[in-house]
């Protein structure tokens, strides 16, 4: 009897988590998979359509691949910038010449913990066409004759989002690079200095190779986080600025429509097409799983 109790005791303690996961995790996922194969507006009866929703993703009207391209564009520009500046700032803060290291670490990390809603609204006000701070500064310096409609032009709108995501995310990479620098044995750098290597040569030959696992981790998490982008561009392009809110979902020519934003607008916007929204969600899930698999294999290969 005691052996039976010992065998089932772990399952008893795990049962609360398993019940919560079953109710709020597994069952919703299975239900959403079923919904992705139906035509449903959330109120009426569900009409089973098979893989029609998934086939519709290849239609340009679904904006699925356009949203993926926009998301990849933002990741491709912001992630390298975040890594480069994060590594530079981490190296400066880790050096012995910088004082008040804790203060500067906090200042650089604060943007990352600011809520996405606040970030989107703040940049909406900064780049507002009529009363934005950026336009006022440029007008005061005489660099422009009239205010630039930052969020009304596809190129400018994408640049604003890249700047916004870079400002918010480089503190994240800085923290991880600081942790990676702290784990590098100081004996290696001291031995290189004794052999006559310069600081820059030591950084290229010792520091960067030893930081490769941290870099791979940042790349994987950065890609996954980039594909989950929603609140910042949504609030930026539809915020409370006097003249910067846009009526088109995703900005002018849908140039800033991310994949999650597309899913949200499809399922909960004006059309309320839950089936198609669920199909977009599972398509995004496959893309994230693909990048996660590639990153995990690459990381495992580096470790071996």
UniProtKB/TrEMBL annotation:
SUPFAM superfamilies in UniProt: MetI-like
TM stretches of this protein: 12-35, 72-94, 106-127, 210-230, 279-299
PROSITE patterns recorded: ABC_TM1 (PS50928)
Residues of the ABC transmembrane type-1 domain: 68-295
Subcellular location(s) of the protein: Cell membrane
Cellular component terms per the entry's GO annotation: plasma membrane
Nucleus is among the record's keywords: no
Pfam family name, one: BPD_transp_1
Recorded topology in the membrane: Multi-pass membrane protein
A biological process term (GO) from this entry: transmembrane transport
Primary localization: membrane
Family listed: Belongs to the binding-protein-dependent transport system permease family.
The protein's name: Carbohydrate ABC transporter membrane protein 1 (CUT1 family)
């Amino acid at each position: 009897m005691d052996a039976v109790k010992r065998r089932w005791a772990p399952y008893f303690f795990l049962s609360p988590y398993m019940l919560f996961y079953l109710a709020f995790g597994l069952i919703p996922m299975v239900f959403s998979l079923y919904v992705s194969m139906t035509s449903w507006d959330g109120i009426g009866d569900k009409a089973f359509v098979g893989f029609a929703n998934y086939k519709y993703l290849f239609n340009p009207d679904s904006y699925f691949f356009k949203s993926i391209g926009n998301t990849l564009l933002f990741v491709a520009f912001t992630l390298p910038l975040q890594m480069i500046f994060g590594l530079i700032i981490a190296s400066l803060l880790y050096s012995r010449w910088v004082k008040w290291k804790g203060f500067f670490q906090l200042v650089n990390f604060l943007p990352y913990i600011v809520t996405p809603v606040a970030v989107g609204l703040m940049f909406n006000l900064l780049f507002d066409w009529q009363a934005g701070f950026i336009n006022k500064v440029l007008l005061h310096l005489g660099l422009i004759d009239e205010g630039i409609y930052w969020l009304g032009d596809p190129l400018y709108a994408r640049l604003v989002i890249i700047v916004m995501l870079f400002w918010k995310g480089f503190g994240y990479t800085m923290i991880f690079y600081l942790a990676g620098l702290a784990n590098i044995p100081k004996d290696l750098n001291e031995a290189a200095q004794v052999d006559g290597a310069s600081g820059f040569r030591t950084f290229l030959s010792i520091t960067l190779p030893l930081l490769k696992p941290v870099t791979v981790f940042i790349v994987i998490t950065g890609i996954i986080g980039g594909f989950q982008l929603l609140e910042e561009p949504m609030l930026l392009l539809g915020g409370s600025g006097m003249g910067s809110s846009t009526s088109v979902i995703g900005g002018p020519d849908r140039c800033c429509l991310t994949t999650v934003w597309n899913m949200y607008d499809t399922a909960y916007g004006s059309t309320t097409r839950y089936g198609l929204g669920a199909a977009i969600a599972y398509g995004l899930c496959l893309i994230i799983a693909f990048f996660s698999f590639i990153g995990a294999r690459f990381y495992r290969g580096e470790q071996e």
